[in-house]
Amino acid sequence: MTDNLLLIKCKEYLKTLCVDISERCVGSNGNRQATYFFEKELSLRDWETEMVEFEAIDWVENGATLKSDEENFNVLVSPYSLGFRGEGELISASTIEELSKIKAKNKIIFLFGEITREQLMPKNFVFYNPEEHQKIISILENSGAKAIVSATGRNAALAGGVYPFPLIEDGDFDIPSVYMTEEEGLKLIPKIGKIVFLDSLSKRIPGIGYNVIGKKGNNNSPKIVVTAHIDAKKGTPGAIDNATGVIVLLVLSDLLKDYNGNKLIEIVAFNGEDYYAVPGQMNYISTNKNNFNKILLNINIDGAGYKEGLSAFSLFNLPDEILQPTKKVINQYSGITEGIQWPQGDHSIFLQFGVPAIAVSSKWFIDNISDQDITHTPKDNIGIVDCNKIVEISQALNTLIRSI
Ligand SMILES: [Zn+2]
Question: How far is the CA of 241 from the centre of ligand 1 (A)?
Fold first, then answer.
């Protein structure tokens, strides 16, 4: 295909993934549609494909109200929370120490200040889970509290661009919860010790999702695994995070359709990077845990194709025979530069198993990771994508893979 045809294809894919399919959060219909679409495109180019199924709940909510003495407070339902309707005395904690001392049985816990600075890692999220988070979760679970209200600030590094961010986003945590802005939290402080009424309309829906894996080459050859997560956060079209990554995989599958080199090329649409329990990634790890030593290299694309700035290849532990061709490719393509290392992405799975990796993203995003307000919000839409960059990245990866 000519560059121009590739560009047209990219635009079509972007529309399919971000406009025609309304959402791609794990467990949703849109997410399954996106994976079927991906599988079909790979099959059409003679990749041997596999849809790996796993269970994943979806979630619907219809808002929440918090009241005390006829005064209303603006609250949002925590993603994947159970619903709640009832009243209780409001009891507060701002530190772990305070939380461990309060008697919260049958009360509604109000968390604000220091204890809500960071989004709590989901209970079963194994890749990164600070002891403090686990401690907070365990105290809450043993508290006998009826519900939790939290007031949270801004923390783009951990919660994307979302404000306020949900303190809890965990379908495995069963105390109903809502969250509010810091400003709203200040207004709630006078209600501590009083009875509050909470009505939160929220429901979990059992469902399934898939990882999609495409293979080309001899099964016994050393592997190059190219990955991008296909899921998006609820409430965002997920254009840069990470439709563009998926589109790179699709274009690459086309550029490599006649590949007959001596490597096994595996293209994986991971499902769950932006979902509390990362089910697709967990599934991949449990299936492959004894085979990571056969992987020469992971290339993970996440956050690529932003309209401003260059594309960035961040290099992790590349051995010389991969480093040299990678540097050459970076020099050869004028829109690509070497980027700083960043840990938040599926390449970290491979690094954990000692596999060298290249993370492909937009320089602007990795440089502004802690203060941008686009990721995980409606602003992450097709208007901020430059499809020329997707084409260039795909061509660069094609060149690179063929030269390893
Ligand atoms: Zn992402």
Answer: 5
